[in-house]
Amino acid sequence: MESLKQTKSETGQTESFLDILKANIGQYFMFIALVVIMIFFTITTDGVFISSRNISNLINQMGYIAVLAVGMTLIIVIRHIDLSVGYLAGFLGAFSAIAMTFWGWPVYAVIPAVMIMGILAGMLTATPVAKLGVPAFVSTMAAGLIFRGALLLVTMGTGTIIINDQVFVAIGNDYIPDINLEGFLPGRHKLTLIIGLIGIIFSIFSAIRSRRTKKSYNFQVPSFGLFVAQLVLISALIGYVAWILSGYNGISWSLVILLLVVGVFQFITTKTPLGRHIYAVGGNPEAAELSGISVSKITYIVFGAMGFLSSLSGIMYASRLHSATTTAGLGFETDAIAAAFVGGVSAAGGVGTITGSIIGALVMMSLQSGMNLMGIDISVQYIVRGAVLVLAVVFDRITRRNQ
Amino acid sequence: METPILEMKSITKEFPGVKALDNVTFSVRRGEIHCLVGENGAGKSTLMKVLSGVHPYGTYSGEIFIEGELQKFNGIRDSERAGIAIIYQELALIPELSVYENIFLGNEVTNGVVIDSNESISQAVDILKKVGLDVNPLTKIKNLGVGKQQLIEIAKALKKKVKILILDEPTAALNETDSDNLLRLIRGLKEQGVTCILISHKLREVLEIADTITVLRDGKTVTTLDVQKDKVNEPILIKHMVGRSIENVFPKREKVKVGKELLRLENWSAYSYALGRDILKNVNISVHAGEIVGIAGLMGSGRTELAKSIFGNPDHYRLSGKVFINGVEQKFRGPHDAIKSSMAYVTEDRKGNGLILIEDVKQNITLANLKEITVGGVINENEEILVANKYCSELNIKTPTVQQKVRNLSGGNQQKVSLGKWLFVKPGIMILDEPTRGIDVGAKYEIYTIMNSLVEQGMSIIMISSELPEILGMSDRIYVMSAGKIKGEMPVEEASQESIMALAVDY
Ligand SMILES: Nc1ncnc2c1ncn2[C@@H]1O[C@H](COP(=O)(O)OP(=O)(O)OP(=O)(O)O)[C@@H](O)[C@H]1O
Ligand SMILES: [Mg+2]
Fold first, then answer.
1. Taking a C-beta distance cutoff of 8 angstroms, is the pair B431, B66 a contact?
2. Pseudo-torsion of CA A95, A100, A106, A109, nearest 10°?
3. How much is the pLDDT for A26?
4. Most A CBs within 10 Å: which of B356, B372, B432, as the mutation test of the A interface?
């Protein structure tokens, strides 16, 4: 019965696996590159790289850059750039520290306040861009200088500000609690495994449902074999990551935040009219405007989102260091921009995905972590990371041109 | 028998999901004007791109001979060296640069190190003379009309030694005077021994100028005709192109009773900050349900500016005067307000501001009306495919799937996507700016039929067009514009090409 239906839906031009791969090579390439890089470091470090502890660390270190990369992706998609995010994150981190330590604000007030400040700062930076067409390069560089000055100003009297608030510090350092199952899988973080399992079940169900709906519309769907293979691959991936994480402390709060951010932004960009509008503005602003999309409104929204993510980044970083320092945020924007480009966004606008940029961030962070483990000098590390960035973009150009 | 100057043998070119050229054979005699015609997506532009090396050797199968010699072009530079010059469907001039800088772009005249502008300018003057163009070489391109720009493209091509000149729809954006100029120039080049290949959907001009015509359909050569010997006329040509005959170019429409006024402009004026002058002066027009109102005029007479100024004023002109939609005065803050008031505007420049080329067919069609397919804040992508499929079949858009990037569609099919996008908005007032530019005869007929059925359902259409036959064939009422003013209004029964032109050239 199944096979009958299958042949029916397969009539017409069927796409073979190779065709699909060819058409999406650009998308899959970075993912494959990531796997290759991870295997390489696993071998050269005798498995230390892939150890639970290292992966867990890697993710926690990546968090505050990855959230910025998500926002930066959208900024670049609408043909702009934001050079202010590092200093904004640094300043907002310092602001949180001061508010908690010196003013005695409760953490539950500080976090929303800082987020609102981030959004406002982003929109303020966007104003000359959206209203007068000032290049974002200039506007955000100026904003960056201002935030840098503000950071120095607030930390001037004190220098480094130590943060003692337990809740705040937990964000960047702690893990979700575990449940107690006597004697079952000792040494493993059970809740992490359960969440992994839920993730697998959820993705299988949603894939099946989407396939059913497609069929009910009589649309062509990938062959059953390919569909199963995809599901197996995704499940294995989620399972493996959950398994590795469960071997250390489980899922960290940083990862929870990152997953939430990625989930929400992925949903908005791929499923909602707002997402469409963002890509339309990036693809052709004039056509978008004439289609009833306000380019300046989209510019405000995207920069506002970037400001919000900068505040998150600042909180995560300050929390991770237990302190706010005068150099916090230095160079974050470069890392975020690099992650986005490695992940396949195009400076010409309209192209680039959230998941791509997360993969880009993972690639850059894996390189850093792997080379650290191998004891490679920081000077060489910079050179390698620069080379990888340019190679990734060159490759992206070539595959795009061939299409 | 003399060897042909150009022979393309068994050319096959495939794109993912499309066989654009299927075993095409194409042969051109020395010194002739050879026209290439066929429906949108028939493969005309692709064939010329194969010839000029845009699609390099190895990406197609088949052979190209020039003067009997096999050619393997790896890029456009190779074909230029072999004496081929191509002018694309879309102009490729840089608006901010001057005429002479554009002419020498990529081949700058230098004295070894720096650009020798005096030498370039004096050479440019000579080249401009060749195409009979009298402009200052220092003028910026953006300050010239399309007709002149087209001639500059040709001038640019002619500065190198050209044996074969290829023009892909050069007259699509030109009015009759400019077109005539261009055709005269092509004849002149023929006398000088240049062989010309011309792609066009304007069959009248094809018959006027061609020695030989090759018809393509669905990527195959249908026939090659000698205009004199085979006594070719329009119906014969159409039959070869479309595969059936089309009796009337303009489908008949039942005269419906004109309904209530949907749009009125009172003393509508606009000042452009960018140009630093008034572009619309005291325009008063009125458009009713159930009628097609034609707006005629020369290039630059302010017709597109009029459309944009009504449609939410995206270029931020300073406006004065009043717009009434359905009898209510409106002050649109942007195109989104105009769309909310059930207006639609199909732009004349589909690549510049009509479509998002890097997105696919379905995303373009639904862009202006996403709410129609959004449920609970989420776009229903399956419904979206259905919608896109519907317009693809209604408008006969040639594309392998609705997931194809619009960039990969032929020019005419892009135009249809643009139309489909605005039909999906289901507007009450539709402004069509050069709606059939670059569209083949068969598709024109389909678009006219759609326009008729829309007004029969009570919509009103404002049609801006530079093609007088189209204005006369489709409109119920005609406004003629010149220099930003409405120079006259007439019911179609009283209009003629002469009466329209007399008003259009009256500054
Ligand atoms: N780069 C490309 N990728 C995929 N398909 C393409 C590409 N270029 C052209 N095509 C397809 O090849 C076919 C022929 O296109 P072509 O542009 O040659 O048509 P045309 O005869 O010039 O039409 P028009 O009169 O509309 O300009 C079309 O179906 C088009 O979609
Ligand atoms: Mg073409």
1. no
2. 0
3. 61
4. B356
A322 in helix, strand or coil? Answer: coil
Q: Is residue A152 part of a domain?
A: yes
Tokens of B118: 């005096």
**Number of structural domains found in chain A:** 2
Q: Is A345 on the interface with B (CB under 8 A)?
A: no
Q: Which residues of A touch B377 (CB under 8 A)?
A: 272-273
Q: Higher confidence at residue B173 or residue A393?
A: A393
Say what the pLDDT of residue A401 is: 61
Range of the structural domain that residue A243 is part of: 175-251
pLDDT tens, position by position, B308-345: 999 999 999 999 999 999 999 999 999 999 999 999 99
Residues A91 and A205 in one domain: no
The CA distances from residue B361 to A289, A388, B31, B43, B372, in Å, are 18, 34, 41, 19, 17
Cα–Cα nearest to B431, from B249, B308, B296, B298? B308
Between residues 19 and 38 of chain A, which touch chain B (CB distance below 8 Å)? 19, 23
Cross-strand pairs, B320: B269
Does A208 reside within a domain?
yes
Q: How far apart are CA A371 and CA A108, in angstroms?
A: 38
pTM of the model: 0.89
ipTM of the complex as predicted: 0.87
**Ligand 2 center to residue A7 CA distance, Å?**
37
Nearest CA to ligand 1 atom 29: B41
Nearest residue CA, atom 7 of ligand 1? B408
Examine the pLDDT at B146 and tell me if it is beyond 80: no
- The residue-averaged pLDDT of B236-245 equals 86
Cβ of residue A206 closer than 8 Å to a chain B Cβ: no
State whether A66 and A215 are in the same domain.
Answer: no
| pLDDT-based confidence at residue A25 (cuts at 50, 70, 90) | low
**Residue B56 contacts residue B50 (beta carbons within 8 Å):** no
Return the ligand 1 atom nearest residue B440 CA: 25
Helices (H) and strands (E) in chain B, counts: 16, 22
Pocket test for ligand 1, best of B11, B12, B15, B395 (most atoms within 8 A of CB): B15
Task: Tell me: pLDDT of A12 over 80.
Answer: no
The answer on A102 and A148 residing in a single domain is: yes
Q: What's the pLDDT at A182?
A: 76
Q: Which of these ranges, A25-39, B29-43, B68-82, has the smallest mean pLDDT?
A: A25-39
Residue of chain A nearest B339, judged by CA positions: A292
